[in-house]
Amino acid sequence: MVRGSTSFGISLSATPSNGLAPLPVSFAITVLSGTPSSFNWSFGDGTYLNGTNSSDGSPTHVYTEPGRFLATVVVHEESNVASRQIAVNVSAPKLAASIAASSTSGTLPLTVQFDATVTGGTGTYLTLRWDFGDGGVGAGLAISYTYERAGAFVATFTVNDSGGGGERSVVSIRVSPVPTDAPTPRSGLPTSVLAGWVALSFAVGIVAAFAVQWGLRRRSTRQRLELDRAERTLEGEPVPPPADDGARPGAMTLLEPGPSVLPRTPPPSDRPIGTESGRPSSQLVVRPPVEGLRVSQRIVLHLARQGALHDDDVATVGYTQAGMASALGVRQNALTNVLTRLMAAQILRVELRHVSGQPRRLKVYTLTSRGEALARDLRTEVGPDPGAH
Question: Strands 142-147 and 151-161: what pairing?
């Protein structure tokens, strides 16, 4: 309790006078002589109380926000007036964070719904960041994430508030590979029969591997053509109708890694590429020219050259939108649209970071695991990195 005194015949007290928000404080006036006729309160946080009842001399007020407040009361006794002040110190509760995961174990691919709860601090949270332990990151209080490789991972949620406080919470996630149930040979079978089963299993495995590889390349080609069509629409170019490649109805054509590396215009020659004397040649390999690359492909190759960023690294300007616009010779407004599409396709991620030579944090773009795989594919198809020196 803090108590003040006055020679005018009143004293003022506050109980308690300090604590964590929300803090209820009971004020009391002691009248040494006379009978007050009215009380005028200002609690210092923008709220007031004016009353003429005796109970108005001992109100209780709740301070909901942290800070130092000066409570003032003016007491009237007929024509006499007296006033007193008292300070109340309210502290912010400790910043705390907890997370819940819909599943902490399972087989590939494992999709987990993460939910974070944040309490205390200043109430203004500047950073709500997720690190899923496999290189993937995210932001927000609730997020869904799919693990696409097996292993033991630690998902971490980090929160920072406007007062400089920080807190983190973690949860362990275990992802198992898809089980392979190999047939168990019956006891007593001849060795020749067992050998035949082994050979047959090996042959089936090879055929399956080739089928999977063919399927992946076919899917990659469809995805590249879809992103190529999207960029043509964005840049106002005529868009040819999609080819009917026999895909089943409802097949997914969402933009995913693998922008097309096909040149937009045919080469300036009357003779078809890959022919000599009008006859096709299987020996001539034609690579798309550097100027034929889409903006999205040039962005992917540019960021691949910048390399990966670790948590404590300071980014260079090459990771920023302005740096990419300057390096690639692309207007920033056009670059913004392409970056948005690449993030929607989960090829890029974006976060606020300190950038070398810049006075404040800027948006920094880096490749996801899908983006890194796309960069490797592009380097294979276009030859040496056109932006490397």
Answer: unpaired
Residues 355-382 have pLDDT tens digits of: 999 988 999 999 999 999 998 988 887 7
Output the CA–CA distances (angstroms, integers) from residue 322 to 169, 338, 351, 365, in the order listed: 34, 14, 15, 11
Cis previous bond, 109, omega within 30:
yes
Nearest alpha-carbon partner for 15 in 7, 4, 317, 129: 4
Task: Decide if 261 contacts 293 (C-beta within 8 A).
Answer: yes
The pairing of strands 166-176 and 137-139 is unpaired
Which residue do the tokens 């709740």 mark?
62
- Interacting residues of 149 by C-beta distance below 8 A, sequence separation 6+: 108, 134, 175
Q: What is the pLDDT of residue 42?
A: 96
- Identify the bridge partners of residue 19 per DSSP, sorted by sequence position: 90
Question: What burial class does residue 175 get, using C-beta atoms within 10 Å of its C-beta: 0-12 exposed, 13-18 middle, 19+ buried?
Answer: buried
Question: Could you read off the pLDDT of 256-277 as tens digits, one per residue?
Answer: 344 433 334 444 444 443 333 4
Q: Which tens digit of pLDDT belongs to each residue from 288-299?
A: 455 568 899 999
Domains identified in the chain and CATH numbers: 2-91 (2.60.40.10), 96-176 (2.60.40.10), 218-240+256-266+290-389 (1.10.10.10)
Residue 235 CB neighbour total at 10 angstroms: 13
How many CB atoms are located within 10 Å of the residue 362 CB? 17
Residue pair 176/105 in contact by the 8 Å Cβ criterion: yes
Q: In the prediction, which pLDDT does 311 show?
A: 85
Q: 74 in helix, strand or coil?
A: strand
Return d(Cα 13, Cα 66) in angstroms, integer: 20
